[in-house]
Design a protein that fits this description.
Length: 128
């Protein structure tokens, strides 16, 4: 008698799938998750053209509403500049909080150097 087991997704389970160990099942699930994530990344990359056309339309509509005289070339240049600088990093302007953040990141090396200086000061003051 054939086994007609059905999973919750409605896909029949073969006898091969029933014989998988836990490690093999987890490996299959990991591969499936990776494929799904790659598909989502590809969909976002392919949707970039749709995003550009939507941005162009909205910017042109906004320019008409506000009364700005703007050409499609200007809008295209603005969109290109937006996408060109979308994933760039710039350091924050220097301030006391940025200085304290840098000290916090380097706290162990700063404490080590301060410890060496203190140790040298104690040794030299004891010798003299």
């Amino acid at each position: 008698m054939p086994d007609n087991s059905i999973t919750t997704s409605g896909v029949p389970v073969s006898s091969f799938a029933k014989d998988l160990s836990l490690v093999e099942t987890l490996r299959v699930l990991e591969v499936a998750r990776g494929l799904r994530q790659e598909r989502e990344v590809a969909e976002v990359a392919l949707a970039r053209d749709e995003i550009r056309t939507l941005m162009r339309k909205r910017l042109m509509d906004a320019a008409i509403i506000t009364g700005d005289k703007i050409t499609e070339a200007d809008v295209d240049a603005a969109i290109e500049q937006y996408f060109a600088t979308q994933h760039t990093y710039q350091d924050p302007p220097l301030s006391f909080s940025v200085f304290m953040a840098h000290l916090w990141v380097r706290r162990f090396s700063v404490l080590f150097i301060l410890g060496l200086i203190l140790f040298a000061w104690i040794i030299f003051s004891w010798v003299l």
